[in-house]
Write a structure and sequence with these properties.
mainly beta; Tachylectin-2, Chain A; binds beta-D-fructofuranose
Length: about 425
């Protein structure tokens, strides 16, 4: 690895490993780590659009922030096409599932606002068409910078390529609502380097996205988490003793798990504004365990670093499995070592009877977990489903030491502010 982190005053570190042995401890349907069943009669935020990844406006310390009493969320959003001939089935009925599954290719960043932290009102697109340099506006983080309402939106510009970018604009409030103005100049920050983080040339299925900037509560510096895969040609990774961990006899066979190479990336800012970044080695790797550790984020609590990341059943490696949901790891210092929460890493998974009910969980420092509804079965066999594309009920969770516990359920899309900023 070519990087020289010492020059930014950062101690070099070894990535922590999420091992196959850790993942063998995953238990679906443990009530303390399972999201309550989402009923198929859920309300839909807006019938014209699908929404999925939800990004609450926050400050650099992670606090969900309202402005002049208005809560604000950003969402990945795509139009619904109920009348488009392309999405009609043989009988002329709207094939909503196909429309929903195609959404990633036309994802755009939208915003919503609310006086109550729920029942979100439609704001609109953050950037006008043509501002973002690529076809897809993928997940990231909106940061409220100051009481002038300046916002840095970090996100991923995808297809062609995958570049972590940011665009600065401003949030403006009135008595009647909120608008986002001036998000006009997108600045590319960095891409995968092929040395620490896998590139598209090394693997057509590479992941490099979902920036989450933050100020380290201990050293005060500006860093950023992101999703990556460990660098190297697809198929060249080794799943050795370290990646396997302490498995029982009969569990040594790793199958084709060398193709699963997720990691949580980290970068440090060279400047105070976060315009100039240096990638560092990953904080956490999941080689031989899982291929995606998406939307990584932190909760800083009790002097500890709680690292959360979302993952899927379908991205697990041969011989290990777990539900779609959010996984977590904890360390006493930013660069680890990280140990899996609840022994396995599983923090909040879908129940096995409704494996796709929710996804893209985001754990807030107040213990509330927001997510979106993907699809919920409408019959006993699970062959009939209702597609979501809307906010899921918020879950309340307690984090204690190396364990987490589901303790409450709240309204759909409930994302209350943790602090309010009065704009000057
Ligand atoms: C999570 C995710 C993100 C990505 C976005 C693309 O749901 O896969 O990692 O930015 O969705 O739609």
């Amino acid at each position: 690895m070519k990087t020289n982190p010492e020059k930014f005053g950062v101690t070099p570190h070894q990535p922590s490993l999420w091992t196959r042995a850790d993942a063998l401890k995953v238990r679906a349907d443990d009530p303390t780590t399972t999201q309550p069943l989402v009923s198929a009669d859920f309300p839909v935020l807006n019938n014209d659009v699908f929404i999925w990844d939800t990004m609450p406006l926050r400050d650099l310390d992670g606090n969900v922030t309202s402005v002049d009493g208005w809560s604000v969320i950003f969402t990945l959003t795509a139009d619904r096409h109920p009348n488009d001939p392309q999405y009609l089935d043989e009988d002329g009925n709207y094939d909503i599932l196909r429309d929903w599954n195609d959404r990633h290719g036309r994802a755009k960043m939208y915003y919503w606002f609310s006086r109550t932290g729920k029942n979100w009102e439609f704001g609109g697109r953050v950037m006008a068409e043509g501002v973002s340099p690529t076809a897809r506006e993928w997940a990231g983080t909106p940061i409220l910078l100051n009481d002038r309402g300046e916002v840095d939106l970090y996100y991923t510009a995808v297809t062609p390529g995958a570049t972590i970018v940011k665009v600065r604009g401003r949030v403006v409030t009135t008595e009647h609502g909120v608008s986002m103005v001036g998000f006009e100049k997108v600045k590319p920050l960095f891409e995968a380097d092929g040395n620490m983080y896998q590139t598209e040339a090394q693997n057509a299925f590479w992941g490099f996205r979902d920036p989450w900037p933050f100020r380290d509560p201990k050293d005060g510096k500006l860093y950023m988490l992101f999703e990556g895969n460990v660098a190297g040609e697809r198929g060249s990774h080794k799943v050795g003793e370290a990646e396997i961990g302490n498995v029982p006899p009969g569990y040594e066979d790793v199958g084709n798990s060398r193709f699963q190479t997720a990691c949580v990336g980290i970068a440090v800012a060279r400047d105070a504004d976060g315009d100039d970044w240096e990638m560092l080695p990953p904080l956490l790797t999941a080689v031989g365990v899982n291929d995606q550790t998406e939307r990584p984020h932190f909760v800083f609590q009790d002097g500890k670093y709680y690292l959360f990341t979302i993952s899927h059943t379908f991205t697990y490696a041969d011989g290990v499995t777990g539900p779609d949901g959010v996984y977590g790891f904890v360390a006493d210092s930013l660069f680890g070592p990280y140990v899996p929460l609840n022994g396995s890493g599983l923090v909040l998974g879908n129940p096995s009877s409704q494996p796709f009910q929710t996804y893209s969980h985001y754990v807030m420092p107040n213990g509330l977990v927001t997510s979106f509804i993907d699809s919920v079965p409408t019959d006993e066999t699970g062959t009939q489903i209702r597609v979501g594309g809307t906010e899921a009920p918020t879950v309340g969770m307690k984090i204690k030491g190396q364990q987490t516990f589901v303790v409450a359920e709240y309204d759909y899309g409930y994302i209350p502010p943790m602090l309010d900023v009065t704009l000057k």
